[in-house]
Structures are given as structure tokens and as C-alpha cells.
Design brief:
Length: about 90
């Protein structure tokens, strides 16, 4: 099973009123080698408790890396080798 399918099962357990321990026990019994970790189940339960019912994972923000950005930062560092990271950002 993939992560998305496990999220749907965790949501099912949440909506059925099972707590995280019961959900973990059930998932471990059904999928002993691939069940999500206890911390993952707790994180998703917390999300569901806040009313966020989507099972889609929020992806990491895309970093913007362009040749122009690289050249600009490179020039900044060459001009001042003691430049701090906070000054660059």
C-alpha cells in the first residue's frame, strides 16, 4: 500500500471514533510490515482533529533555483567572504 491509501485508512479509523492506539493496533494487525509509525498516525489524527480532512500530503515548498539567483549569490559572497546567511536571504 502507498502512503495515500494508509492516510485514507487512518481517516476511516478517526471517523469511526478509534483513538490512535486502536488505529495503530488495527493497522499493524492488517499490514504488519508496512503500517505507518505511531508518530505518523498521531500527526494525521491531529490534522483531522483540526478539521483538515484532506488526505493529500502538503508537499515541501518548491525552491527557486535559477542561474540568475546562483550568480547573484556567488557575487555577493565574492565581494564579502564574511557574509552571513541572514544577509543573503
Amino acid at each position: 500500500m502507498d502512503k495515500k491509501e494508509f492516510r485514507v485508512l487512518m481517516k476511516y479509523c478517526f471517523l469511526k471514533g478509534k483513538n490512535t492506539v486502536q488505529a495503530r493496533t488495527w493497522l499493524d494487525a492488517e499490514f504488519p510490515y508496512t503500517a505507518p509509525a505511531k508518530s505518523t498516525i498521531k500527526d494525521w489524527y491531529a490534522k483531522f482533529s483540526r478539521g483538515e480532512m484532506s488526505t493529500e500530503d502538503s508537499e515541501r515548498p518548491k525552491e527557486v533555483v535559477t542561474d540568475e539567483n546562483i550568480k547573484t549569490i556567488h557575487k555577493m559572497i565574492l565581494n564579502d567572504r564574511k557574509l552571513k546567511l541572514n544577509d543573503i536571504s
